[in-house]
Amino acid sequence: MEQPTAPEAPISPIDALRRICFLLERGRESSYRIDAFRRSIEAITLVSDEELRERVEAGTLKQIKGIGDSSAAIIGQSVRGVLPAYLVSTEEKHGEPLTRGGAALYAALRGDLHAHSNWSDGGSPIEEMVLAAVELGQEWMALTDHSPRLTVANGLSRERLTQQLKRVDAINASLGDAFTLLRGIEVDIHLDGTLDQDDDLLDQLDVVTASIHSKLRQPSFEMTPRMVAAVRNPRTNVLAHCTGQLVTGSRGKRPPSQFDAEKVFRACLENDVAVEINSRPERCDPPDELIELARDLGCLFTIDSDAHAPGQLDMKSLGCERAERLGIPAERIVTTWPVDDVRAWAKG
Ligand SMILES: [Zn+2]
Ligand SMILES: [Zn+2]
């Protein structure tokens, strides 16, 4: 992957707004402001350059539904060939790479096995997530929206996932060889260790990322067999954010779930399931000592963004910093592999 660089004038209004959103998302700013900018991008996508210029001159930009004061100023400046002031200040605040460490691993990353769109609880359409991944120099990404049980996250029913797969295929067809969008899911692990989607549908996916979102405080003697059963399921490829811990952020803190990590990671090793290094700063999951345990057992890993917005795709740099510091060899990280190898591994 490549570090995105700061743009220069002239810049189109849409590029300026997209870059601002990217930086704000990556910097974990409030979604309220970002959503407003994203709405303004949608609003001007349908407006011709000529009309936009006329409206800037006439001062009537804000008559377009979805354009507020800040967006109007950004659009006005970029139409006049000036680098928008809001972009400059956002660049100053959030333009630096998220971390200095892990640069070699970051450069070696090719893909992502955990990312969401607005089909479940993400903020952006699939197409926008793909475009951002392409701009970061990624080669592939699995779309992993939530499964039905997770109603709070607008989890996809059987019908909606079937519908989504058609969209994924259409997007893929339009991308040619330049980028591959893999058919994926973040499937919830039930209390009995079964997966929250029908087997025949899981069989149609390229990759299955499995995770726990309920009863995180179960005692270890219940949590361990639950996780081992999920890992032994031949359809599971990735065990995501395995401890469920939250270390910072607006949702507060949550201690890691209790389970026999050696048993769970041994099951991962035996079943060719990768242990996810979840890059989200509030998750930072698994903690260092568990990554070291999985490393010493010989497990495969993924470095995933768990992005819910395009700018968050770049959070993988945080996972890279951790993996490099903890001495995980790049070849054991599935998200550094070419997409054909990932497909073969997932179906193997
Ligand atoms: Zn999750
Ligand atoms: Zn997720």
How would you characterize this protein structure?
There is one protein chain. With 348 residues, this protein is an alpha/beta fold. 43% of the residues lie in helices and 7% in strands. The strands form two sheets. It has a five-stranded parallel sheet, with helices on one face. It is globular. The protein binds zinc ion (2 copies). The site of one zinc ion (ZN) has 4 residues, from loops. Residues 111-191 form the Polymerase/histidinol phosphatase N-terminal domain.
Summarize the topology.
Blueprint: H1 13-26, H2 31-45, H3 49-58, H4 69-79, H5 85-94, H6 103-108, H7 126-135, E1 140-143, H8 158-175, E2 180-183, E3 186-188, H9 199-202, E4 209-211, H10 220-232, E5 238-239, H11 261-270, E6 274-278, H12 288-297, E7 301-304, H13 316-325, H14 339-347
Parallel strand pairs: 1-2, 3-4, 4-5, 5-6, 6-7
Helix pairs in contact: 1-2, 1-4, 1-5, 3-4, 10-11, 11-12
This protein binds zinc ion (2 copies).
Residues 114, 116, 186, 306 line the site of one zinc ion.
Q: What's the mean pLDDT score? A: 96
The oligomeric state is single chain
Tell me the total number of β-strands. Answer: 7
What share of residues is helical?
40-55%
Whole-number radius of gyration? 21 Å
Name the strands of the widest sheet in spatial order. 3-4-5-6-7
**Which cofactors or ions or other ligands sit in this model?**
zinc ion
**What portion of the residues fall into strands of 2 or more residues?**
5-15%
**Low-pLDDT residue intervals, each spanning 5 or more residues:** none
Total count of helical runs of at least 4 residues = 14
The coarse overall form would be globular
Rounded to the nearest angstrom, the distance between the terminal CA atoms is 26 Å
What does the main sheet amount to? Answer: 5 strands, parallel
What structural class results from the helix and strand content?
alpha/beta
Order of helices and strands: HHHHHHHEHEEHEHEHEHEHH
Pfam family, one: PHP
Protein name: PHP domain-containing protein
Domain Polymerase/histidinol phosphatase N-terminal: 111-191
InterPro entries: DNA_pol_lamdba_lyase_dom_sf, PHP_dom, PHP_phosphatase, Pol/His_phosphatase_N, Pol/histidinol_Pase-like, PolX_PHP
